Amino acid sequence: MSPESIRFDRAAGFYDETRGFPPGEDRHIAALIAQAAHLTPSSRVLEVGVGTGRIALPLAGHVRAIVGIDLARPMLERLRAKRTAEPVRVVKGDVTRLPLATGLFDAAVAVHVFHLVPDWPDALREVARALRPGGRLVSGWNEGDRGMSESALWHAWDAAVGAITRRNVGVPRERYRTFLEDEGWRPAGDLLVHRYVTRHTPRGFIDQIERRVWSSFWRLPDADLARGLAAVRAAMRELDLDPDQPLEHVARFNVQAYLPPDR
Length: 263
Fold this sequence. Notes:
Layout: H1 15-19, H2 25-37, E1 44-48, H3 56-59, E2 65-70, H4 73-82, E3 88-92, E4 105-111, H5 120-130, E5 131-146, H6 148-165, H7 179-182, E6 186-187, E7 192-200, H8 202-210, H9 222-239, E8 247-259
Parallel strand pairs: 1-2, 1-4, 2-3, 4-5
Antiparallel strand pairs: 5-8, 6-8, 7-8
Helix pairs in contact: 6-9, 8-9
């Protein structure tokens, strides 16, 4: 594992609050993943970067068993505390050197992972090794249509410090849509999309910046964070935004299945 890999130990206390889905949406997303991966009640699934189980726990109802791997012990402890009877087993480990047998899984799931892993090509090779012949990797990611006010706040932030926070240690942002195919993975089936609505306030947006809830903010110097916050607050005043008036965000959770490169 590269020492530059992003570990989420510090995020265990707020990850579900800031990355979780609105009530009931997780069931729809789990069903979409099951459809893309052709999962059955006998399927064995690997989730890399399992975290607190926001994907694995609802997905568990579709399969025989899930093994989740993650670097962050506090995240795995949070998953264990949430787990009831779901067949989800967790392993603390490195996705670039999976401590798992070859050809063990019918499918693998990765949601918001490979941009955090400097050695992501090695991680992909390990995922391919863990899949049985015909097994699929399901990649999931969020996009959204921000309203004018939320877009203005993000624009203010990006204008001030966005060039710093957009840098990834793993897959670059500009390659999110292509990196798997660039590495020889082949799309299997159509892109599947689930749409849902989230609501949060400008005050909550400021609070999340101050608490550095996004991993891209963790290494941001205090002076840059303060400059970005000042720009966001100035935009709020210019737009005369009520800090407690919820802003609506139409989100899209995208799911695409891939077959590994020809061996």
